[in-house]
Each structure stands twice: as structure tokens, then as C-alpha cells.
Amino acid sequence: MSKKILMILTAVLLVGMATSGFAAVQNVKVGGDITIRGIYRSDFDFTKDNTAWPVNKDTCGWLMTTTRIYITSELTDGVAAVIRFINERDWNVEGVTTTNIDLDLAYIKLSDMLVPGLTATLGRQEILLGEGFIVGNRNAASRAGNPTTLVFADPPVIPLGNIMAGDYTARKSFDAIRLDYEVATVPLTLTGFVAKIAETYALALAAPVDVGVDIDLYGINANYQLATAEIEGYFVDLKDSHATKNAAPAPGAASRNFDYQTWGARLAHNVAAVPGFSYRGEIAFQQGVNNVGGVSGIDEKNEALAGYIGGAYAFQDISWEPKIGMTYNYFSGDDKTGAPGLAWDDKNNTWTPIFPDGSADRIGAIGYAVFGAAPGIGNPGGLQVIKVNGSIQPTEKLNLSLAWFNSNLATKVSGVAPMDKKDLGNEIDLGITYTYSEDVTMGLLLGYYVRGDFLKNLVEVASGPGTSTDAMEVVGSVAVSF
């Protein structure tokens, strides 16, 4: 079925490109941005007084620069082309992966292709569904590395880049084919896409073995816009397909097969009867199969749930423009996934992140840097986070924000330490943004993470009583767009 969808999309695009083969250049635009960050982090392993210096230490500071240059070309017949190059590097880290200029975006956009309202985008592009709860960032799982051991972003940024703060990577793009159709009679936009996540080339081998798997991401989305509300529904399928059909696994390799199917809906509403008040929510269900035969011999069935609900209020006709908000995020967990002391079963209830964007705004800047986009920090406990935030605008150029994140595991397992505790911790983030000019913005983030009983037990079981501590970070930034 997946290959049939891909063939249909390809055929439609080939016809569309054939009709636009002689488009002429009408307008070319060149621009870009440079962001410089100074980063100071302390006790991101939640372990104090490490004694293995110089291998490990409690604090570290460094600087990094993200540089992007783009070229957009608008042609006749509704044709456009976009190319963007990127370089991300930590200062004075010189190497092939840090000094290379990489391809970040490279796509062709065909507007009103074949019929009015149909747009095709093909090539390396950014794909954001709604608020990015499910799809928005190809590198969503990248998190902070360990500067003292020269372990860079883990897992690494793709394409491979040696930056320590993987949580600040600007690379979000997918290699994809995308179709958008805007219905003329109603404010409805329909979207379908196919993205290549991993490519494995099948080779002619002497023995008929499976040389590996391709990983593809399929998605359909319907977005309905009203005057004060937005309604969205989607289906996303992340799955693998074996590159060599009818062949056994390669020698020493485990059988592998996974298929994460995610259904969801989103609602956002600005309440006209109460100016300044808005609410939003999203719910997603996950199903499919996860073959973990190489570990347990059990083919797990995915049955997971995630979502959020929140509200915000912007005070009207008040100086400093105060705003407040509250959001509850939930990612389901599982108490039987092979963790120490637990038995396996054939159901996987732990939510598996696909490619979310904006995770730091949901679970906190430190929480995202340390734990990544995966709820439950790699354990089956899942995650639930209550976020309370507010902001003020003392001057036209100065904005102050404060956010508190209360994080707990979604699932508690009695008698199995450290999973018998649900209290993950509390994070407080203070943000300061100053608009220096129309093109230059300065920022400062102060974050502090107070460890909960779960993290305390996790560290002290491994390192001894009294060895756990809280984490903190300071991130300053200067960004210019041109």
C-alpha cells in the first residue's frame, strides 16, 4: 500500500513538472541568519562532585554559532525553488563535520499544479503539522552531549554535525514529497506527504540475506480554519521496509520490523466572547507493531496515548501586556517492557515520539536537553508535565517570561526501584528577550531543575547516597537576520 501511494505521488509530480519545464526567473532573493550562543551548564548528570577530573566535572561552558544562507527563486507559472545552506559548530572545534557547509533545504514548489489550489513541494523541506506535537523536527531526539568526555550531541545531529548542544540544532528538514490542496469553497487544506528517513541500498549478494531496512514516514492531514478557531486531524505512519525481499536476516543480525501508526486531532480557539482568552488541545493514539525479537522473542503491539490541553489569557488594555497560561502534557507509559524486575508482555503502552518540534516548550529547556524528546527518559514510565507560564512586556523592546514545569512519570511500578517513584522533578526557566534593532535580537535563558525522588534514586543507586544534585544552565544569545 505504501509503495502504491508513493508511485501515485511520483506520477502526479512528473506530470506537473512537465507542464512547468520552461518557467522563467522573475525574482531572486538572498538572505540568512547568524545566531551565536554562549552556554553554561552544571550537573546535567544530576551527580555532584565528580572526582574523575579531567574525564568528568560538574560544570562546563562554551560558545556555538549557527549560520544559514538561503536563496529563493520565483519563476513564472507558479514555480519556485528554495536552497538553504547551514553550518553549526562550537567555537574552536575544527573538523570536517564542523567546518562543512551542508545542505539544509533544497526543494521545488509548484503552485496551482494541474488544478487551482494544488501545490507540490518536493525535495529537502521542513514539515510542520499543527504545533509540531507529532511531526516538525527531523532531529527531535538530539540532546546535550558531554563536553568533558567529548561526546557530542547524542544521538548525533543528522546530517552528522559535531555540536555539543544538540538540543539547539537548527536542522529540522526532511527529504520528502508533499502535496497540499486548498479547497476553494471552504477554508480547508488537505495535505499528504512521504518522507525518506533512512535509505538502504539492496545489493546482489552471494547469499540471499537481508542487507537492512528503509525507514519511511507517511502522513495525511486536514486543517480547517474558522474566524476564531482551527481544527485539525491527521494520520502519520512511521515504518520500516526490508531492502531485500524474501531473505533471512544477515548473519548475527536480529529480525527487525516496526510500524508506528499515529492518529490524532487538534483544536485551537480564541474565544471572541472573552477577548484575550484562548484554549487549545490535542490528542493522539498510537498503534501498530514493534518487533523486538532480537531481545525478547515477542512481537509487541503498540497501544499508546499522548496529548495536551491548555489555556492562555492576555490581559487587555493594561501596560506591560501581561500574559498567563497553563498546559497539561501527557505521554503514556508501560509497566511491562523488560525493565529490571519486570516481565515482558505483548503490548507496548509507552508513547513513542515520532519527530516532534517544540519539546523544550512542553517539558522545559533542561528537561529536553538532558532527556531528549523521548518521554520517560528512556524508561517505560511515560511522562506527564504541568506547565504554568507568564510574561510581561515592560518596554517595546524588552520581554520577560517565566515558566514552571512539574514533571512526573505517567506510570509507577511498585517495588521496582527507581520506578517506584513518579516524581521526576521541577524546572524553572526565566527568559529575557531584547529587540536591539529590527534585525538583531538578544536573549538570555536561566534554567534550574530541582530533582525529584525518581532522579534522586536513579543517581544514588548507581553512585551512592548523597551523590545526587540539581541541574542548572545559562544560555545567552545574539541573533541577526538579513
Q: Describe the global form.
A: globular
Give the fraction of residues assigned to helices.
under 10%
What CATH calls the topology is: Porin
The secondary-structure class comes to mainly beta
Task: Return residue spans where pLDDT drops below 50 for at least 5 consecutive residues.
Answer: 375-380
Gyration radius, in Å: 24 Å
Our estimate of the beta-strand percent is: over 45%
Distance between the termini: 45 Å
The tally of domains stands at: 1
The CATH architecture assignment turns out to be Beta Barrel
How many β-strand runs?
A: 21
Q: Specify the number of helices.
A: 5
Mean pLDDT: 83
CATH domain class: Mainly Beta
Order of helices and strands: HEEEHEEEEEEEEEEEEEHHEEEEHE
The biggest sheet, with number of strands, parallel, antiparallel or mixed sense and barrel status, is: 18 strands, antiparallel, barrel
